[in-house]
Amino acid sequence: MAAVIEARGLTRHFGGLRAVDGVDFSLEHGEIHGLIGPNGAGKTTFVSLLSGRIPVQSGTISLNGEDITHLPAHLRVRKGVAYTFQITSVYPRLSVFDNVALAAQSRGAGDVPAEVAQALGRVGMTGLDGAQAGTLSYGHQRLLEVAMGLALRPVILILDEPTQGLASGEIDGFKALIRSLVPQTTILLIEHNMDVVMDLADRITVLNFGQVLAVGAPDQIRANKAVQDAYLGGDHAAG
Ligand SMILES: Nc1ncnc2c1ncn2[C@@H]1O[C@H](COP(=O)(O)OP(=O)(O)OP(=O)(O)O)[C@@H](O)[C@H]1O
């Protein structure tokens, strides 16, 4: 399989804190790739480096073979790297339609209403266009966030803790949604819910203290002693 994103020696320290410390990583075309690790392991910092939200200190990132290490975030979005934030980033006072329309417009979509309808359809929110975003249930707000990500027509969709705060009944629908997005869209999923990540991911990267502890299929990760000791074995609160 071909790598869509390839990071080599990616590094970001905050003072003496090695948040991301020499990470090699590859995201393969059409896969669902889980990113896990204890709280503070560097997951959010790592995807912020990939998306250009924070600058890289050293190392390189390439997208389909092109060096994007120093490309500004908005230009990475144009090239198809979309990152939905950990905190719901919808505009609560705007309608569902307008929220998705803003995302579609930002990438210069031609037929905005059609794009909005398509994105809302994919997340199962057809008919909710006129609702004020802030009045939606939490689960629907998370789906709206994904619809906004999809309206960017991403090559890669980075989801940061998408199931956080969802009711257990909503999680199955969310998993089905993520599965429906591949292989057209490649998914990088930061997820604390082990059932979700083990069930969804083709491969998982485990970060610990800013470094890669293991990469492999879910079964390999589950069986990995170092991963069990650092993360899976203990009593880790969702963060
Ligand atoms: N802007 C910043 N300034 C200083 N330290 C930071 C900054 N951003 C993150 N850190 C620190 O870097 C480390 C990695 O944080 P990060 O949020 O990337 O971890 P994480 O694996 O996403 O954690 P969680 O699972 O709790 O979301 C933490 O110790 C955090 O406190």
TrEMBL record:
SUPFAM superfamilies named among the record's database cross-references: P-loop containing nucleoside triphosphate hydrolases
Keywords: ATP-binding, Nucleotide-binding, Transport
GO molecular function: ATP binding
KW Cell wall biogenesis/degradation (keyword) present: no
Domain ABC transporter: 5-234
Gene3D superfamilies linked: P-loop containing nucleotide triphosphate hydrolases (3.40.50.300)
Keyword Transport annotated: yes
PANTHER family: ABC TRANSPORTER ATP-BINDING PROTEIN (PTHR45772:SF2), CONSERVED COMPONENT OF ABC TRANSPORTER FOR NATURAL AMINO ACIDS-RELATED (PTHR45772)
The protein's name in its UniProt record: ABC transporter ATP-binding protein
Lineage, uppermost ranks: Bacteria, Pseudomonadati, Pseudomonadota, Alphaproteobacteria, Rhodobacterales
